[in-house]
Design a protein that fits this description.
The structure is a single chain. The chain is of the alpha+beta class. The protein has helices spanning 2-33, 36-43, 66-71, 75-92, 122-136, 178-188, 199-205, 251-256; strands at residues 51-63, 99-104, 107-112, 141-142, 145-149, 152-166, 172-176, 194-198, 211-221, 225-235. The chain folds into 2 domains: 1-33; 48-256, 2-Layer Sandwich (Alpha-Beta Plaits). The strands form 2 sheets. Strands 1, 2, 3, 6, 7, 8, 9 and 10 form an 8-stranded mixed sheet that branches.
């Protein structure tokens, strides 16, 4: 009887540990899809109210020539290329106080300043991350064109927005407001391997005098009229303004190792 009780207790312990492990996996997956604070409210069957944020900075990027690249390869190669790119990006943004909102095709959207407010640091966090990603994209090869590298077009904008959960089945955490539209316009009017910043982001960044920004001048933005915009060239604390600051990235190794000890790179002035 004693032996039976001991075996039963051991079996119960093992099943409890297995249940805890499966629960942790489920929570980790949920946290990858939704902010932790939002996921916690949903687990408690609470209604998640939309929240207003006075100032956030939003980043948009897309791949230069994605349509022509996709037309010259198979759908599986497109998936492999995007998966390699987003794995690279996803691991790098962990170094910054940002939240990845979503990916739509070749578009990559990140925000800083929500769901957790970070004072006035949101523009700085997005600027550092932007420089890092624009440099890092040059490490990602095109599967059917191994000698060529991808190029990124990026845009950033600072302003107010509203964030909340949309949908009951497969709920999504979405951002709303003109700030989102303007950030998207900064990206669509940008140039290859450049970071296009609005005047609002420019004024947020020059407070600390830590960045090199170049006036682009007035441009006509669809739905916005004429805007004065800037190029984010680099960070003054990093003297080498090229890809040499970025370590080599191997997608196969990245799948095995979640963390990478890489220095932050910045975009070349000649881009």
């Amino acid at each position: 009887m004693t032996e039976w009780i001991q075996n039963f207790a051991q079996s119960l312990k093992e099943k409890t540990e297995a249940l805890k492990y499966q629960r942790q996996l489920a929570e980790d997956l949920l946290h990858q899809m939704l902010p932790k604070s939002v996921a916690k409210q949903l687990r408690q069957h609470k209604h998640v109210k939309a929240e207003s944020y006075e100032k956030v900075t939003i980043f948009f990027s897309d791949i230069v020539g994605f349509t022509s690249i996709s037309a010259s390869c198979t759908p599986l190669q497109v998936v492999e290329m995007l998966n390699n790119l987003y794995m690279c990006f996803d691991m790098r943004i962990d170094s910054y106080d940002v939240y990845k909102v979503e990916t739509i095709g070749d578009a990559y959207m990140v925000v800083s300043g929500l769901p957790e407010r970070n004072g006035d640091r949101h523009a700085d966090e997005i600027a550092k991350m932007s420089l890092d990603l624009v440099a890092a994209v040059r490490q990602v090869s095109i599967p059917h064109m191994p000698e060529q590298r991808l190029e990124l077009r990026a845009g950033i904008h600072t302003g107010p927005c509203v964030a909340g959960i949309v949908g009951y089945k497969m709920p999504r955490y979405c951002l709303f407001g003109d700030t989102v539209n303007t950030a998207s316009r900064m990206e669509s009017t940008s140039q290859p391997q450049r970071i296009h910043a609005s005047s609002e982001t420019y004024f947020a960044l020059i407070k600390d005098n830590a960045y090199e920004l170049q006036l682009r001048g007035e441009i006509d933005v669809k739905g916005k009229g004429t805007m004065n915009t800037y190029w984010l060239m680099g960070h003054k604390n990093y003297s080498v303004q090229n890809n040499s600051l970025v370590c080599n990235w191997n997608p196969k190794m990245a799948r095995k190792k979640k963390t990478m000890g890489c220095s932050m790179g910045s975009v070349s002035k000649e881009s």
